[in-house]
Amino acid sequence: MPYLLSGIGALIGGLVYFLLLPGTPSARKGVWKYPWPAAIALAAATFAVLFFAQQYFEVWPKNQSLKIIFALPGLVLATAFVTFPFIARELIPTMEAVGSDEELAAVTLGASGWQMFRHVTVPNIKWGLAYGIILCNARAMGEFGAVYVVSGHIAGKTDTMPLRIEKLFQEFNLEGSYAVASVLTLLAILTLVIKTRLERKVPASATAPGPMKPENE
Amino acid sequence: MSIVINNVSKTFGGFKALDNVNLEVPDGSLLALLGPSGSGKTTLLRIIAGLEISDSGTVVHQNEDITHHPARDRKVGFVFQHYALFRHMTVAENIGFGLRMRKVSKAQIDERVKELLRLIRLEGLGSRYPGQLSGGQRQRVALARSLAAQPKVLLLDEPFGALDARVRQELRHWLRKLHKEIHVTSIFVTHDQEEALEVADKVVVMNEGRIEQIGTPEEVYDHPETPFVYQFLGNVNLFHGRVHHGRALIGDIEVDAPEHADAVHTPAVAYVRPHDFEISKTRNGGGNSWLEATIDQLLAVGPVARLDLKRPGSDEPLQAEISRDQYHDLDLSEGDRIFIRPRRLKLFAGEERTARS
After folding, report:
1. Exposure winner among A82, B12, B126, B190, fewest CB in 10 A?
2. Residue whose C-alpha is closest to residue A48's, from A9, A88, A11
3. Residue B108 · residue B79 · CB < 8 Å
4. What is the ipTM of this complex?
5. pLDDT tens, residue by residue, B216-240
6. b/e map of A73-92 (b: 16 or more CB within 10 Å)?
7. Where are the alpha helices (DSSP H) in B32-164?
8. Partner-chain contact B88 A123, CB within 8 Å
9. How many other β-carbons are positioned within 10 Å of the β-carbon of residue B282?
10. Residues 6 or more apart in contact with residue B171 via CB below 8 angstroms
């Protein structure tokens, strides 16, 4: 029911938007100048309705005793939301540099979509992907705000390290909070080491594994 | 017929890349798609390969309609302009890729890779990476890779476009020889008329998404059917005139034009190749068959002497080519007044298009 309602809401919103959209591009101002951000805002509003209203409507996840907010899925979603841009920021330039010719070549040579992805796409972007994962992981370890809002603060269940540190600190368990903080620091240093190692490989992923020599026949 | 293309059209946005194209490619032929950029030649090749889907029309391969078959099932070899070798694989792994994807046994793959390395004369380089090869070597590897799974058709997209002139020349000869050896139906795209005329045994001239002419290299060069083909294949001089009852009046000269016998004061354009001019220092009594011109510039390096000519009362420059011997016999120098007569010319009557700028 709420899905339907928010779906209808989004549809009406979209309809109103395009009905009010001025015909000539030059006359478009404000919200009407940027249809894509407007569409995204509309989608975000729809999702907000879905999430916040699930208390009032009997929503599917609740019925299935699958809780999203204040549970593990909520943590994962919030973390993914703030960390995915790191992977995209690494991968998009790498993929643009590599281009699509090799993938097309693989297809004409008889590779299926999955074979192409495994044998051509992934090897070409693996260092960019690894670097993105490291950055993403670093961000995920340190994420506090977004996770704080959606976590249920249940120790050992819906806690992340920074949340744990904060909670221990608030409980005046200084030894405990310093211990967890030290572990987090060590992990951060480890991440830094791996990141620096990988950084040397990333620019090479756009060229070739072997040294590129000038052309000589 | 190996490949038959029926009424294929393709539009990108508002741009008509292919406009109702019909083409038949005989088995075992080596065909060139020749045209300027934006003429639709690459789009046609990609439609045959299945990398692009046509908006309308059909592609038939050995009596089987493959219009909607995915690229991987079409058994075509495709060679890209920029090689598109898998940079993280060795040369041998690159060549064996297609067979590996088709789950051929390792021993068979090794055998075939060895055979192909011999064919492209790169024995011993199987363990190198593409980054360690020269451009010409890379393109040969790309060719071997596309041949590995024994494709029924070989498609090459500007295969020599990224190579320097000398390597390009070598590879052209090599491709021609290779085709004689393995006889696989091949289609290659090029914008270089010299390349098309030299390598292919059939040339398809394309312009603005349409096929202008199909023929052997001799046919398209010696008997162009449209003004576009005339001016695209080699240098050409353009004359404006009119035809009237089978006689063409071009500038001061009059020639027979029996194919336009029923034309009445129709505007016409005449094309003359630079090497189809006869040159003399006098009118030789020939009356109104000689055109007067002055030599603007002389270039006598190489086997032919090139004359840049100017006609009195016309801004259009003319170009003529004569043999070195004739050039010495005539004892020409810049600024001389000479007379020229077209030995052969091609007349297009009622043609609005002035092909040469």
Report:
1. B12
2. A9
3. no
4. 0.78
5. 999 998 888 888 998 888 888 888 8
6. ebbeebbeeebeebbeebee
7. 41-49, 91-101, 106-119, 135-147
8. yes
9. 9
10. B136, B139, B140, B159, B160, B163
